[in-house]
Amino acid sequence: MDNQLQKDMWNGRAGASWVRHNSLLEELLSEPGRQCMALFDLPASAQVLDVGCGCGNQTLDWASRLDPSCTITGIDISQPMLALAEDLKSANQSSLQANVSFVLGDASESMFPEASFDAIYSRFGVMFFADPTAAFAQLRSNLKPNGQLGFVCWQSPALNPFFTAPMQAALTVLPPPPPAKPGAPGPFGLSDRERTYSVLSEAGFTEVTVEPLKLELSAGADRSFDDLFQELIQIGPAAALIAESDPALGEQAKTAVYETLGDFYAVGKGVRFEANFWLVSARR
């Protein structure tokens, strides 16, 4: 199945928003990615692929950890996000050890020769495939024999107030969007543990493990709530709903979100959200 809807979204509003707020989003979301990195047992001179690398922060984090004999390739469908990735690579060149490259493309398509990589990693980049089983089968073909797949993805929205609290507040004012089909491409496309296990098994992976990870996400400890809110109101599903609404209702919704997010803020600590993820690992 074609991922064109995702390509359009991440080369449009969603990608532009992530680029604008990359620093805040990395402050919030870097730790689950690092927890996922710890899953890997890499061979010497490892060739690593970072799927859905976005603005390249995690790719560059990998490159600062790997030795100079290693190579890491970041792939993403978003041209604006990869443009920032290249800028960040240039700005952080002195701290990078492994060779880094970025590729514009869809990892569910045949982008690389078979058995190119020792490891495939992803932080929140593999939940958007229109046909996840076919996509993971393609990724499996990119791994060398016994190569490792590892990724982190979100558990259900109910366990992640970072997403749900702003949306619930906005919905006190705005009409709800059409309900998402369970398992549809999006942040929660792999939120069901059993389905994720089945998808990877059907794609041919072995030694599949899907383990829970609970963390507290935090950001903005040195910022006022009003300053932080100006960014938070521009990211996530509530932001998209407000942007597409009648302007007068949108302002009312922003006020409702402001009041709700205030409950997650403390002076000197910033905003803090309990968050629940799946840490997933498998072998070719």
List the helices and strands and how they pair.
Elements: H1 4-10, H2 13-20, H3 22-37, E1 47-51, H4 57-65, E2 71-76, H5 79-91, E3 99-104, E4 117-123, H6 132-142, E5 143-154, H7 161-170, H8 193-202, E6 206-219, H9 225-232, H10 237-243, H11 247-261, E7 265-266, E8 270-283
Helix pairs in contact: 2-5, 7-10, 7-11
Question: If you had to describe this structure to a student in words, what would you say it looks like?
Answer:
- By secondary structure, the chain is α/β, with parallel strands linked by helices.
- The chain has a domain at 4-157 and 188-219 and 275-283: 3-Layer(aba) Sandwich (Rossmann fold), CATH 3.40.50.
- 40% of the residues lie in helices and 23% in strands.
- It has eleven helices and eight strands.
- The chain has helices at 4-10, 13-20, 22-37, 57-65, 79-91, 132-142, 161-170, 193-202, 225-232, 237-243, 247-261, and strands at residues 47-51, 71-76, 99-104, 117-123, 143-154, 206-219, 265-266, 270-283.
- Strands 1, 2, 3, 4, 5, 6, 7 and 8 form an eight-stranded mixed β-sheet that branches.
- Strand 2 (71-76), helix 5 (79-91) and strand 3 form a beta-alpha-beta unit.
- The longest helix is centred in the N-terminal third of the chain and has 16 residues, at 22-37.
- The two termini are 23 Å apart.
- The mean pLDDT is 94.
